[in-house]
Structures are given as structure tokens and as C-alpha cells.
């Protein structure tokens, strides 16, 4: 792979995706060793620049970079001069003087990671930009699906919830589509745009489509400027994994995925977390290996003179 940046899934071809998935396998094997580090990025610097909150992605990139022996700096946006009005462009100019080799960025605006990538020779990794893309989430999702179904082609994944505001839905559906996995969307009509994928607004109808995996999404109230459904209780009873639906999924052998963070009592009931085919923890663990593969594959264009 000869990419400087990792900004979206659309820009990758199937061979490049498979290469990254294959590369993540030995990195994951490392996790069971007493020494979990390799020297691949020794002497390199990874800068984390998160303008939006994160638990999984931020900590996962930090662990991934450290397991590759890179030096990691977490730029603390809330206590920085960003609060005094410093622009992203000026912040990057300032940080460039520190000669970071990799910048991992999350921002509420779609396209911000790409704009930073044009500005800097550092490799820029998009850790989520608005409702546009979250490509490393898509990579870890594909890695997780492949662990369960080594031959992914023809498997069916129903992505359920707030598709409209979800960068995960965009990136993960594109990823699965490129790998030959069949995708359908399900949720309230107000939250499921018309795309090339089958679209369901009735959960029971969607289950007749025969998914191997139900991939749940959180309803992103922070990105909504209107009420898209009457109440959380209503949403849970119509679209959530209730105890009764979980029993049906269990009987049908269906797996459950979720990118996190979860909203208990909205898109899922507590029992989902104890369900034997719930892959949420596996997704989190695989996020480290997938992000190691991305950091390892990229080619920064930093001038060292
Ligand atoms: N899945 C995901 O992006 O989670 P965080 O917002 O916690 O990083």
C-alpha cells in the first residue's frame, strides 16, 4: 500500500483492504505475548488531535502506536489555544514544527481530515469527520466479521439505527460492500436515507431478509437538530434489541455488533452484553490490531532536512 493518508474507505480497493486485514492478524497475535511491542515505528511520533470526544478510538490508537514503539502525544484540545479561537489550519502549522510523522484527527466537520492531509506531509488518519467517514472503525469491523466468517462473501449484515447521522454506517457499509458482504439498512424512515442498499423501516421485515449479523448504531442526538422519533422508550420497543428480539436472534444464530458507545434501553437491552454472539468486546480489541496495521502501512512525506 502506498498511501500517505487514511481518510475514507471509498479510496481503497479490495486488494488494499485485504492487505490491511492480513497485516492486522500478526499484530493481534502479539497481544497474547508477554512483550506486546514491536519496533516498527521506533523514533516516529504520532500526534492525536481530537476535537470531538472519544473513548475507544483515542485509547485504541494510543495503544496501537505504543505497541509499534512510536512516541505518542495527545493534544488536549479543551485546554489548548483552540478555546481562544485558534483555527485548525493555524494549529496544524504550529504542530508541524514538532515534526509529527502521523496525525490522527477527529473533527465534527466532514472533510476536515482531508483538509489537514493537504496541508501537511505527515500521514493523516481520519478518526471520524462529522457524518462523513470513520475508516478505521470500518476496518476493525471487517476484521471482526472475518474472524467469525472467514469467507465473508455473501454474508448478510443488517445495519440498524440512525443511519442518517452515522459516519460508521457510511464507512462500514462501503467496506462490507467492497468485500462482497451484503448490506441492508433498518430504522425509522426519518433516520434511514434511500441508498443502493435494501431499506427496511420494520424490524421484523428486516429479520426476514436473513441477516447473519445485526449491526446496531447509537441514535446520535448530538447531531440531530430535530426529533426524529417520539421517545427512547418507543424507539426501543420498535427498533431496539429487546429481550424478546434477542431470543429470536439467538434462536436464528445471529451475531450482534455495535461500534460503541452504547445506549442501554434504547438500541439494546442489558442482556445483549451477555449474549454469546455479541461481538462488541471483540470489536474493541480488534481496533488496536486494525489501527496498528494502518499506522504500519502509511507512508509519511516528512522532509527531515
Ligand atoms: N466507535 C467509536 O468511534 O467510539 P468512540 O467515539 O468512543 O471513539
The first-level CATH class name of the largest domain: Alpha Beta
The description of the largest β-sheet is:
5 strands, parallel
| Rough outline | globular
- For the record, the count of structural domains works out to 2
Q: Report the order of strands and helices.
A: HEHEHEHEHEHEEHEHHEH
Q: Taking all residues together, what is the mean pLDDT?
A: 95
Here the CATH topology of the largest domain equals Rossmann fold
Which range best describes the helical content: under 10%, 10-25%, 25-40%, 40-55%, 55-70% or over 70%? 25-40%
Distance between the termini: 25 Å
Beta-sheet strand percentage? 5-15%
Which structural class matches the secondary elements? alpha/beta
For the secondary structure, the number of strands is 9
Strand order of the largest sheet: 7-6-5-8-9
Amino acid at each position: 500500500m502506498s498511501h500517505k493518508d487514511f481518510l475514507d474507505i471509498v479510496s481503497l480497493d479490495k486488494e488494499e483492504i485485504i492487505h490491511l486485514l492480513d497485516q492486522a492478524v500478526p499484530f493481534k497475535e502479539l497481544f497474547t505475548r508477554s512483550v506486546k511491542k514491536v519496533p516498527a515505528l521506533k523514533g516516529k511520533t504520532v500526534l492525536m488531535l481530537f476535537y470531538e470526544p472519544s473513548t475507544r478510538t483515542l485509547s485504541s490508537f494510543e495503544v496501537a502506536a505504543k505497541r509499534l514503539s512510536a512516541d505518542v502525544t495527545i493534544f488536549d484540545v479543551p485546554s489548548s489555544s483552540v478555546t481562544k479561537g485558534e483555527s485548525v489550519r493555524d494549529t496544524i502549522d504550529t504542530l508541524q514544527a514538532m515534526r509529527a510523522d502521523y496525525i490522527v484527527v477527529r473533527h465534527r466537520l466532514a472533510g476536515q481530515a482531508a483538509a489537514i492531509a493537504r496541508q501537511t506531509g505527515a500521514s493523516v488518519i481520519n478518526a471520524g469527520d462529522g457524518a462523513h467517514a470513520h475508516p478505521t472503525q470500518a476496518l476493525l469491523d471487517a476484521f471482526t466479521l472475518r474472524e467469525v466468517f472467514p469467507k465473508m462473501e455473501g454474508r448478510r449484515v443488517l445495519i440498524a439505527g440512525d443511519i442518517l447521522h452515522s459516519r460508521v454506517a457510511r464507512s462500514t457499509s462501503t467496506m462490507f460492500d467492497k468485500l462482497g458482504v451484503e448490506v441492508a439498512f433498518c430504522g425509522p424512515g426519518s433516520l434511514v436515507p434511500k441508498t443502493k442498499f435494501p431499506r427496511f423501516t420494520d424490524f421484523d421485515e428486516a429479520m426476514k431478509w436473513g441477516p447473519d449479523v445485526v449491526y446496531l448504531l447509537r441514535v446520535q442526538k448530538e447531531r440531530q437538530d430535530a426529533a426524529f422519533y417520539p421517545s427512547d422508550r418507543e424507539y426501543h420497543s420498535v427498533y431496539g434489541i429487546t429481550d424478546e428480539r434477542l431470543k429470536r436472534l439467538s434462536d436464528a444464530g445471529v451475531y450482534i455488533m455495535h461500534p460503541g458507545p452504547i445506549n442501554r434501553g434504547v438500541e439494546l437491552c442489558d442482556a445483549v452484553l451477555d449474549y454469546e454472539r455479541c461481538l462488541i468486546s471483540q470489536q474493541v480489541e480488534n481496533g488496536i490490531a486494525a489501527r496498528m496495521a494502518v499506522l504500519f502501512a502509511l507512508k509519511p512525506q516528512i522532509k527531515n532536512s
